[in-house]
Amino acid sequence: MPARTSWIPYALIAPSVVFLGALFLVPLVQTIWLSFSAGDGFSLENYQRMAGDLNFSLAVRNTFLLTLVVVPLQVVLALAMATMVTKLDKGRDLVLWVLTIPLGISDLAAGLAWLALLQNTGYLNSALYALGLIQGPVGWLSQETPWALFFAIVLAELWRATAIVLVILIAGLQLIPKEFSEAAEIFGAKPWTRFMRITLPLLKPSLQSALILRTVLAFEVFAVVYALGGRNFPVLAGEAYVWQNDNQNYGVAAAYAVLIMAISLAATAVYLRVLRTRPEQLP
Amino acid sequence: MTIQAAEIPQTTKSRSMALPSARRLLLWTGLAVLLAWVLVPIYFVALGAFGGRLGVFRWPKTIWPADLSLAAMTQFLSIEGVFNALVNSLIAAGLTVLFSVLLGAPAGYALARYSFRGQNAYRLLVLLTRAFPLAILALPLTVSFIRLGLYDTPFGVSLIHTVLALPFAALVTQSLFMGIPREYEEAAWVFGCTRFQAFMKVVLPLALPGLAATAIFAFVISWNEVFAASILTVRERTLTAYLLRILAESPLHYRFAGGFILIIPSMLFIFAVRRYLFAVWGIASK
User: Could you say which protein family the record assigns here (chain A) (predicted)?
Assistant: First the structure.
C-alpha cells in the first residue's frame, strides 16, 4: 500500500522535473521556434533552404533506406540470437556477455572497427586477394561505390545495435510462462508453430519497445556513417551537424532537427498503434 | 524429420539436455558464428591500434598479430589534444553519473513508494523523452550555452548527457526500490529512525548494487555520445567529439587507436553489469 499523499514525493521529483523542463522541453520548443524564424518573424525560409539543398533529397532517401533495411534485419537477427541463447545451459552467461558487448560501444567506435575491416588495405580485401578474387587493394567506401558503402554501413549498424534489441527481447522472453509452450508441445505443435503462435504474439510488447527505441535511434544515425564514408553518404543528422558546425546556420540545422523529430514521432505513433496489446492478451 | 519424431518423448522430460548431438552441433556452430561476428571487428581494430603506420598499410594482411607495439598507442596519446579530450570525456561522464543518479534516484523512490497526483504526468514526461532523438536537442542549446558560459565545457556536455541518462535512471531505480520491502523501512521508523535515516541505513545498502549498475549505464551513455558532444564543444572536446573532428585528416592508425580506446571501457563495464543487464532493460523498455 503506497503511503498517503504528502509533500515528500513532490520534493523528490521536483529536481528532475525542473531539469527535464529546462534541458528537454525548453530546447524542444526552441528548436521548433528557431526553425520557423529567419530575419524577423515567422517564415519558412529555413525549410526552403533545407529542401533546396543539393544533399537534402539524398539525405532523406539514405536515412529512410538505412532504417528500413537495418531495423527489420536487427529484429530478425536478435530473435535468432535470443532463441539460440535460451536453448543453452552451459556457457550461457559468457555467450550473452559477448553478444551484448556492442551495447556499450559508441557508434563512432563501431564505424572505426568496421573501417579496419573494410578499408582499402583492410582485412576484407586481403581475404578476397588471398582467394584470388581481386588483384590488389580495392576501395569500397568511396563515392564511386555507393552500394558497397551502403552495405558497409548496414553491417556496422547491425553489428553495433542488434545487442540492444537482443537484450530487450530476452528480458521479454523471460516474462513468458514456460507452460504455454509446453502445453502446445503436448498437443503436437512443432517448434516453428510454437514460435509463431505463442512466443511471437506474447513478445509483442517487447518488440514494440525495441522497435521504437531502434527506429528513433536509426533516424539520427550519424557517427557510423561519418567514420566509414565521411560525407560520401549524406544522412539527416549529418546534414544537421554540417549546417550547425561548418555553415554556422542554426536555422537550417533546426529545420533538419524538426524534420528528424517529426519522423521519429510519426514512427513511434505507428508502432504504438500497430503493435498495441490489450491488457486481456497479456499472460 | 525422423530425428525430430524420435526425440519428442525425451524433450518432455528435460528440454535443454535432450537436444540430440546433430542439433547441438548446429546450435554451437550458429553461436560460434555469432560470437565471431561480435569479436572479430574488435580484434581487427585492436590490431590496427597497435600495428602502427606500417601495420595499417601492410598488404596483403594476415589475420595474426605481427610486430605489434605499444609505441603506436603512446604516440597517439601524446598527440596534442588527445589526452585533454580523454580527461574531458571522463569529467563529462563522471558528472553525468552524478547528476543522473542524484536527480533520478529520488524520483524513482517517489514513484516506488508514494501514490500522488501528477504521478502519471511525470511518467509520461519520462516516457516522452524516448520518442525524441534527444542528442539533436543540443542544436538550439548552443546559443543559450554560450550566453551562460557553459558552451565548450565538459560540464555543459554532461548536462545534455544527463537528459539522455536521467529517464533511464528514474525508471530503473523505481523498480529497484519497489523490490525492497517497505516493511524494512517501517521497522526502522518504529525503532526511532527518521525517514532519512531509515533510507540511508536500511534502503540504501540494499539498493547499492543496482544503483551502481545504473551509474555505470549513465557513464557508458555519456562516454559514447558523439552528436551533442561535437555540437557543444570546440576546444575542450570530449574524446568522441575529438575523434569525429579529426576523422577526415588523421592517418588510419590514429583513428583505430582512438576507436580502440573508446571500446575498452565499454567492454569492461558491460562485463561488470552483465547480471543486471536484462533486469535493467526489461524495466526500462516497459
Answer: Belongs to the binding-protein-dependent transport system permease family.
**Helix or strand or coil: residue B249?**
coil
The CATH number of the domain holding residue A82 is 1.10.3720.10
End-to-end CA distance of chain B: 39
d(CA A282, CA B193): 42
Phi-psi bin for A103: left (phi > 0), alpha (psi -120 to 50), beta? alpha
Complex prediction ipTM: 0.85
Residue A62 maps to a domain: yes
Return the minimum-mean-pLDDT range out of A199-203, B65-69, B173-177, B226-230: B65-69
Q: Which chain B residues touch A130 with a CB distance below 8 Å?
A: 60
**Nearest-angstrom CA–CA distance, A54 and A209:** 35
Would you say residue A187 lies in a domain? Answer: yes
Residue A129 near residue B60 (C-beta atoms within 8 A)? yes
Residue/partner pairs of B25-33 with CB below 8 Å, 24 or more apart: B27/A84, B27/A87, B27/A88, B30/A80, B30/A84, B31/A84, B31/A85, B31/A88, B31/A95
Q: Is there a contact between B100 and B162 (Cβ–Cβ < 8 Å)?
A: yes
Identity of the amino acid at B173? T
Residue A281 per-residue DSSP state: G
- Residues β-bridged to residue A42: A37
Q: What is the mean pLDDT of residues A29-33?
A: 91
Print the domain residue range for A175: 56-233
Q: What is the tens place of the pLDDT at every residue in A89-129?
A: 788 888 888 998 998 899 999 999 999 888 888 888 888 88
Count CB atoms within 10 A of the CB of residue A281. Answer: 11
* A107 domain residue, yes or no: yes
CA distance B51 to B68: 5
Distance between CA B283 and CA B279 in Å, rounded?
Answer: 6
pLDDT at residue A4, as a whole number: 53
Predicted confidence at residue A3, as pLDDT, reads 47
- Dihedral sign for Cα A27, A33, A35, A37, please: negative
pLDDT of residue A5: 58
Of B104, B135, B267, the CB nearest to A16: B104
Is B64 near chain A, with CB under 8 Å?
no
Evaluate if residue B282 carries a pLDDT over 80: no
Mean pLDDT for all residues in chain B: 84
CA-to-CA distance for A1 and B199, rounded, in angstroms? 18
Q: Does the beta-carbon distance from A237 to B170 stay under 8 Å? A: no
Distances (CA, A) of A111 to A233, B60, B136, B204: 13, 22, 20, 40
pTM of the entire structure? 0.86
- Domain membership flag for residue A33: no
Q: What's the domain count of chain A?
A: 1
At A283 the pLDDT is 59
CATH class of B76-284: mainly alpha
Contact B48 A210 (CB under 8 A): no
